[in-house]
Amino acid sequence: MVDVTVILTSYNKPTMVGAAIESVLAQTTPNWELIIMDDESGEDVQKILASYENDTRITLIRSGVKNEDRYKVTRYAYLINLALEKAQGRYISYLTDDTVYMPERLATMLRYFQEHKEAQVVYSSQQIEQYNDVGKKIWSMLLEAKEVLHQAANRVDHCSVMHTKDIANHVKKRYGSFWDDHADYWFNADAVFWHRLNSFAPFFPIELVLDITKNTPSCFQYLSQFLPDPLPQGTVIKGLDGRFFVIEERKRRAISFVHFEKSHYSRFVEVPDPILYKYEEGEQIDEQHPQKRILLQHKESKKWYWLNGSLYHEVNESLQTALPLHTLPYLSVSSSFLSKVVPGCQLTKEQIMKGLLPDGLLLKHQDLFYLSDAGKLCEIQDRIAFEKLLYKRSDVQMVSDEDLRLFAKGPAFVWEMFQV
Q1: How far is it, in rounded angstroms, from Cα 92 to Cα 214?
Q2: Taking a C-beta distance cutoff of 8 angstroms, is the pair 124, 213 a contact?
Q3: Which residues partner with 163 through β-bridges?
């Protein structure tokens, strides 16, 4: 039996995954196995992983997952469960493709277990580094391991932990699985597993920094933080492959950068692949197939219209000052364009109250914020509006008690990190 099984989860980090693997190869203790669980990364990552397949200590497993299935479970938890079934080590350690171990990591943790027979779980201090889009480190933070933890959830990263295989087996026997891979736990599935481990044993600290995590703008936790589910109608999202989409009728419609600029979009949200592929891909947006719900401005007359499906509605002049319509994307159109769409009633305050409310308006009543979505007004957390959807404070329009009562209300846009 090997001393320790290292489980490395990998997905599309070609500039970093090699360093993660090399940090295991550089360990001062030789008796380990590495199980690489790759979640169908692209060819650039596959070439890197393939270069290690001849090492008998390394097992490479490719998941075979389809993109449209990514959102259904927390993928890294699912992959870890598969690896735990195959693990031969007396101890289990975790690694991600954006983290590197210090050379003495495994030896230090194994020595702790040998010297403290009561320990079943240990964790170390961790260095976290944040990098920008061009690979420059912009800040770093030290997470210190100083105390015995009886509630480690949301306090310890899984790359800093080692535990016995025996305690993992006890977890599975009690809970029916090792890690809980339910889709609700994408952001912090390790917290759920730590709660399970803590039901059997505490986490013992090793004060040394034994791993360094290098977060980039493409990491899942960064991209998913404050991201509501579902996304508001009309949100422009950018996938990791650089393509743009507009969320419309709970589908993602591809939009070229040229049409993105023509539609006067001022902001977009980068999303991780599980979120991107959660939305079925609809018809591409182009000159012949514009968004179904968007503001229009006539090129010559400068009049404003609200396109709502197959109808367009001229915007009442008083309404243009009553609501922050200037904050919305719009298309400049000709009379020829309008001739192909059926004219509807004039867009007035009364019609808006009946459900013709344009999407994407950010309103505020007292201390609460509201976002218009599919004709309804939906409460929205301010951190979602300003930190994730990138609204400006100047985009907000105050509404009175009377006006607020007139709007049809929809479900709130919220983001909550799972707590145990």
Answers
A1: 22
A2: no
A3: 92, 121
Catalytic residue among 98, 157, 190, 395: 190
Handedness of CA 174, 178, 179, 183 (dihedral sign): negative
- What tokens were used for 343? 């004219």
180 is catalytic: no
Residue 419: pLDDT band by 50, 70, 90 thresholds?
A: confident
Question: What is the pTM assigned to this prediction?
Answer: 0.91
Angle at alpha carbon of residue 8, lines to 73 and 62, rounded to 5°: 65
Q: In what order do the strands lie in the sheet with 244-248?
A: 251-255, 244-248, 236-238, 269-270
Which residue has tokens 């409310």?
A: 357
- What are the tokens at 390? 């990138």
Q: Are strands 368-373 and 330-333 parallel, antiparallel or unpaired?
A: unpaired
Does 158 have pLDDT greater than 80? yes
DSSP bridge partners of 59: 35
Phi (first) and psi of residue 304, to 5 degrees: -105, 145
Reported as a single tens digit per residue, the pLDDT across 222-276 is 899 999 999 999 999 999 999 999 999 999 999 988 888 999 998 999 999 999 9
Q: Which residues pair with 122 in a beta bridge?
A: 162, 204
Count how many Cα atoms sit within 13 Å of the Cα of residue 66 in the half-sphere of its side chain: 3
Q: How many Cβ atoms are within 10 Å of 129's Cβ, its own excluded?
A: 15
Residue 95 half-sphere exposure, CB side, CA atoms within 13 Å?
32
Predicted pLDDT of residue 404 = 87
Buried b (16+ CB within 10 A) or exposed e, 260-284: bebbebeebbbbbbbbbbbbeebee
- DSSP-based three-state secondary structure for 17: helix
**Does residue 95 contact residue 7 with C-beta atoms inside 8 Å?**
yes
Residue type, 266: S
In angstroms, the Cα distances linking 206 to 6, 229, 280 are 18, 38, 46
40 alpha-carbon distance from chain centroid: 18
Cis omega (within 30 of 0) for bond into 230: yes
CA distance 194 to 116: 20
Question: Token pair 């009175």 is at which residue?
Answer: 400
In sequence order, the 6+-apart residues with CB closer than 8 A to the CB of 410 are: 373, 374, 376, 377, 378
| Amino acid occupying residue 282 | G
Contact 26, 103 (CB under 8 A): yes
Residues 6+ apart with CB under 8 A from 312: 296, 305, 306, 338, 341, 342, 343, 344
